[in-house]
Amino acid sequence: MGLRGASPANSDSARPSKKPVRETSRPGPTSRSLASPPPVIHPSRGDAAAGERLLRRRPPPQMGDERVKAEALQILGLFQALPRLVVFDLDYTLWPFYCECRSKRESPSLYRHAKGIMFALREKGIDVAIASRSPTPDIAKVFIDKLEIKSMFVAQEIFSSWTHKTEHFQKIQRKTGIPYKSMLFFDDEDRNIESISKMGVTSVLVENGVNLDMFKLGLSNFATNVAASSTSKDE
């Protein structure tokens, strides 16, 4: 039924991974160290200037929500066939962490393109929903409130389940009345993508959160699936 998933590299930071602890030992005294201290090497003016420039260097500023929104609207304008509903996972899709590893007292943050993309969808009249298997929905909902994005969602299905989100989508479909073939879904787990794709939802695998590139890929896959469905009906 056309394209159902993809996973190109993304620009946002990857999931944290534990680094092995490097074991080091202090060197014992040597004849050289006992006799005299090591020579001091003074950098040249050029080296010093380069070092100052390196220290002053700062990472480039992140794109603001309005700029992301403008680019997302341009991307939406590239396609005639658009979804009626876009569904997002939460952990490592909209934000870069697992809810169960955080505290309600913390101040959460979204992936840098997430809010601008949702703003663009709302302006275009496309509904947005959440499908999350988080075992701590209370923390997730507190974070959604803190981020001031609660009003963006027509449905919030946040609960632990062994169904790989088929139950979530059944509830979303009943609430919205939107058919599965008119939905677009972003998630970071293969098993969820595979399960929901079988329901007829265009599903896209993200590796490091949703961003403009993944957004464009999802819309392209959706348009391809719509075209394939129309062709099969004509035949």
From TrEMBL:
GO molecular function (one): acid phosphatase activity
Region (Disordered) residue spans: 1-66
Gene3D superfamilies: HAD superfamily/HAD-like
InterPro entries membership: HAD-like_sf, HAD_sf, HAD_SF_ppase_IIIC, MDP-1_euk, MDP_1_eu_arc
Pfam families for the chain: Acid_PPase (PF12689)
Protein name: Magnesium-dependent phosphatase-1
Native source organism of the sequence: Oryza meridionalis
